[in-house]
Amino acid sequence: MAESLRQIRRRIRSVESIHKMTGAMEMVASSKIRSLERGLLAGERYFSVLRGMLNGVLAAFPEHSHPLLVPSRAASAPLLCLFTSDSGLCGSYNTAVLNRAGAFLRERAGEKPALVLIGKKGISHFQRRGFGVAASYPGLFGRYRREVAEEIASRLAGFFLSGKASAVHLLYTARDASRRYAPVLERFLPVERPPAASGARLSEPSPGELLAVLLPAFLSAALSRAMLAAFATEQAIRAWAMHEATENASELFDTLIIQRNKIRQAEITRDITEVISSAEALRR
Question: 87-137, pLDDT tens digit by residue?
Fold first, then answer.
């Protein structure tokens, strides 16, 4: 009985520590979500404005082209840029996006897709399975940095322009219209052209000069948007997972307290019974 009580006390201390840790992690993740979502909202507006400007130029001047608008003929392998986390404790976040990546690779198996991996979980997953990795970016830990997003966007464009990739796709997790988090697969390169527009056309500076400025800025904004969405989702799912863990720890703590009290009550009852039995024996 005494040993069981000591074990339960040890378990109570352990559960208390877990409760404090998961509660703190939930608060940290929640604070990161707010910062990332503010950045994502601003990034969405910036991306929308750039998309409108670029579409306007492309629709007005369909005869003007750019290497980033034309599918590469020098390569047949697509490239997949995948966002995963650098750490765990975020529920099914990585599982969902890795499963979607696996489906993409199976669908394009004959083309032998290349991979650009952001996050340690994706890197370790594909390296264990023998996939070739064109580039990797570990150690970001859900912290968005504009210079890193610009570097990745420039590198993806370099793969495409050099003929090492016939197309570039982004795979990340974001919140959909129903406010559920799900993997999103979208084409990054070549940039999609809108239908041609009719009417008078006049441009100063020239359409070529506008495209040379707008296309790199658009790609950088698109990559930043995907990165912010992925990181915000990661923290949201981690906060929810830590909230659930904290709730479970609270329930387990309450159960252990009841068990401890029952054992202590049983010991008290046993001691009282022994005292009464001894007193009765002495009176006899």
Answer: 988 878 999 999 999 999 999 988 889 999 999 999 999 999 888 899 999
Longest Cα separation, the chain: 120
Residue reference for tokens 């948007």: 225
19-28 pLDDT tens trace: 999 999 889 8
Q: CA-CA distance, 7 to 56, in Å (whole number)?
A: 71
Could you tell me which of 46, 48, 96, 89 has the C-alpha nearest to residue 230? 96
End-to-end CA distance of the chain: 31
Asked if residue 100 lies in contact with residue 185, where contact means CB atoms within 8 angstroms, the answer is: yes
Length of the chain: 284
* Percent share of the chain, pLDDT over 90: 58
pTM of the model: 0.84
Tokens of 198: 């009719």
Q: For residues 71 and 207, is the Cβ–Cβ distance under 8 A?
A: no
One-letter amino acid for residue 89 of the chain: L
Please enumerate in sequence order all residues whose Cβ is within 8 A of that of 182, keeping only pairs 6 or more positions apart, or say none.
96, 173, 174, 176
Dihedral angle of Cα 102, 43, 89, 123, to the nearest 10 degrees: 40
| Cα 75 versus chain centre, distance | 30
Contact call for residues 121 and 85 (beta carbons, < 8 A): yes
Beta bridge partner(s), residue 80: 115, 169
pLDDT digits (tens, 9 = 90+) for 127-170: 998 888 999 999 999 999 999 999 999 999 999 999 899 999 99
pLDDT band, residue 202 (cuts 50/70/90): low
